[in-house]
Structures
1.
Amino acid sequence: MALNDQLNALTAKLRAMVPAERLAVVDCAAEQLSHSGLAEGALKIGASAPAFELPDGDGMLWRSEDLLRRGPLVIVFYRGRWCAYCNAQLAALQEIHQQIAATGASLIAISPQTQKHSYMTRDMHKLRFPALSDQGNQAARRFGLVYRLSPELQAMYESIMTKLPGYNGDQRWELPLAATYVVQPDGKISWARIDADWRRRPEPEELLRTLAP
């Protein structure tokens, strides 16, 4: 099944199970984010990707400059392991990571989660690519992706025990937009997909086409 078919099915399931008042908060937040202009202001094709150094769940540091010496770098920003949409995307990426590697590219996924939760993300999905911790959203901020959740959405997440301070290790209640970048060895962004609505993600096949020689 195509990834976005899975995401649509997930949305339909949530709409059938979740009380309407909670869904209204989520829909309103997604609409506000889509109209905020944040996605339009994020780094796009032709921009230079900021360099970063981030740890994985084991504490090993990964430097973007080192990865780019090997070839193109695919960077996926996701919200966290508590996000069902992110989990579906990570599982889809796991299915194609060998095809990505066959093109000479590297794949990494970045979230604001603590190293503990990044480790749990990798373990849950048996990921064969790094899941990196960007605590404080420092790397995501340099890509122009960071936003603060509205008080209404914060309260809604707390009501369903999705307490971001516990996942992210701070009280900021900030997340990155769902975004996927392809960065060439010269540091230039050659492909970008930024989704203000976190319920949408690029299809794996679309990403593979951008990497095809």
2.
Amino acid sequence: MQPSAWRAPALSLRWWPVFQRNLLVWRKLAVPSLIGNIAEPLMWLVAFGYGMGALVGQVQVGDRTVPYILFLASGSICMSAMNAASFEALYSAFSRMHVQKTWDGIMNAPVSLDDVVTAEMLWAAFKALFTVTAILGVMLALGISASPKLLAAWPILLLAGVAFSCIALIFNALAKGYDFFTYYFTLFLTPMMFLSGVFFPRDQLPVAIRVVSDWLPLTNAVELVRPLFMDQWPAHPWRGLLVLLAYAVVSFWVALALTRRRFRA
């Protein structure tokens, strides 16, 4: 009798060689990959931050008024972590799993499917952290924020990357082709971008939608990171961290179970 696909993850350190393999391959394309990952968020920042920011001026955040460019930057860096982790855990992971059959080759070694999925999740989170670090460097160079509390943003953005990579791996396990990912971006990521306080304060949303927005992973990432840009500590850090952690744990479990079922077929 086959063990249940929903059994607990069998975690070990054998994910590390798989992670190293992805790193060695990526190093050959690191520069174009970095440019591709940071170009779009920086265009958002310039077009909306400086263009629309000139029209909007100041934005009320709690009891403080901040420039719109700072408001947008603190939200867009979380959005960048979401997008970078999602793209890696969808298109790149699907290529290795389904198109190139890299996972099959790896599992001929003493490496389990659980190890491979764990490595893919951590690799996508690392790519997200690398991307947001580069974007944060540009933001610092532009003088958008100089708060020393931004150092605390790295572990938060890493956790956000882990959460979104786990969610994306669920869709990776279900996908039959690249076109399937359109549903994920159109029905999940894009609406969340506009409901999570990235572009405008969530106070403008209807109450019912705001209640839903409170529990979105991007909302909680933004609520944790934005005060750091303002040289403040988040008002409710544990709530946001627990929500992101819950998304990561539950989504990883579901993604792993669905991937096990796929490889049994």
3.
Amino acid sequence: MTEQRGRVVCDLTVSADGYSAGLNQSEERPFGDDGGDGWGSRLHAWLADDPDENRAEIDQLSAAGAFIMGRNMFGPVRGEWDRPWNGWWGDDPPFHAPVFVLTHHAREPQPMEGGTTYHFVTDGIESALEQARAVAGDGEIAVQGGATTVNEYLAAGLVDELRLHIAPLTLGGGTRLFEGVPPLDLEQVSARAATQVTHVTYRVRS
């Protein structure tokens, strides 16, 4: 009997021209030149301003059994871990599950409140996925981003479902989805227009 494995899904908010963050990202402006305050307020207005209208999509964001993210999404610290940093989300992050952070610099796991523990993976995207599968069982594994990390998983053929949340603005530059990714065969599963976003879900055909 074949072991059941959970789907690998990617949720990403992008501008209409495909950027998940603008140019000139910094600790003070983690989303860079994002057409707003640098904290993604316009890109992610659908989350902050219209939670009731987008409840189904918001609930999906935290439904996975394990999460994977790039170090750039985890925080602005580069190189060695030369200062304490436990993510942008405070003492009780919204994940409530293991989170595997891709990095080149080893660090001990960091438990947080609410069931989130950050694990730091230094041996690549496939190792992170194997570790996430081990804890998620048949639950979903969510590749959270940023776009560079999503692109790596797409290019490696490791994504089952791509959920895009398309904000009605263009950025003109920055970190772009599909950069360096070979042509993909996508099957549209659903599409829904809301006030400040269009939600589109694609199945990635193998």
4.
Amino acid sequence: MQSYSRLIAAILLGTLSCALAAETRSPEQQAFIEIYRELVEINTTDSIGDSVRAAEAMAARLRAGGIPSEDIRVLSSGPRKGNLVARLRGAGARRPLLLLAHLDVVEAKREDWDFDPFKLQEVDGYFRGRGAIDDKAMAAIFVANMIGYAKEGLKPDRDIILALTADEELSDSPHNGVRWLLQQHRDLIDAELAINEGGGGALRNGKPFRLAVQLAEKVYQTYQLEVTDRGGHSASPRRDNPIYRLADALRAVGKFDFPPRVNAVTRAFFERMALTETPEMAAAMKALLAGSADPAALAPLSARPDYNAQVRTTCVATMLEAGHAENALPQTARATVNCRVMPEESVEEVGRTLARVIADDKVAVIPKGTAVLSPPSAINPEVMQTITQLSVEMWPGVPINAAMSAGYTDSRWLRNAGIPAYGISGLFSDPGNNGVHGRNEQITAKSLFESKEFLYRLVKRLAGSQQAAASK
């Protein structure tokens, strides 16, 4: 009975502490949370969600916040696939600045989560829900900040364009919002440079540890491994079984490491990280930078999934399908192997390497779709200096790293179209506990509000106005 009473007391205390935190917020902060809540609670998954509804909801927020209706467009490429483009007009002294965030989210099943993923919760200092980070945090922040700029009468040197888009989470979707807008309405989002997701902050022991600016990303390519056979009755089994062959092929892939590679972005990343990491990890980073391919010397890096993804191309089995009846020998066995390829590496060579590693000509290695190459964005001194200045103001002592994303973002479409993109959010989270693409996605309230302030200042300074120069 006492333990039950303590549990009830803890729940009430947690609820009370959240309520008190909400009471101390400014009207602007509370208005932002309402935008954030509305966006998170609109289901925008591919299966049953609706990004048109989300785009229209954010358009309504912008209109109510003072952005002229003629500067707000909701464009749909198909049913439930919506994109919002809004513009805060400037003096035209420079080409526009594009703010990009995606509206769609990864699937989330209620039975897999500890709570309803499409009801924003604030518990124990965290906001929780699908999209709480990826990517509705930045989307809501950009909407709230655009309203803030309009209310303060900001007159930037250049237009500020906001684009909230569909289907970033689907690698080969014909409704990818950024690609579709570039193809159909490039004039609406054409810009000198863009700010997007892809770079954020990492916490260690609850404190900011590093801040990344994404300048590059790995190339996404999926392969299907397939074995076919004539099949037969399960009462007369044969050793030449598609499932066994496929299992042997997957074991070979699982044991294989692609050779280590360093490019300009990852070299700068590891040079900085070697200054702050543990002695063992720093030694491995220095060995990598010195050109070592010795597995023993690089073992600490290879054992850390996040660092290993920066070191080499990776391929991993993600899906399986085999057989057609429990009493029949399988006629087909298939596996999906997803690869994230270093930007400078040949995608075709990765496919050939998989075939060599598998070493079984009865296992077909079939590429799915066509890889979208993603050239790195050149370092922009104005962008990097502004980010550095703001980081010193807000998180003194936290190192800033140029980074390559192991995953992909919509920056690849912009970079291929000649629009340099820089991934920076100012969102700090624990990479092993934030639930992005997994269950119970969450971000601390402190980090969310700091990100909003960081991006508010960053955009004003990059927009280049007298008010921006005088801003805090």
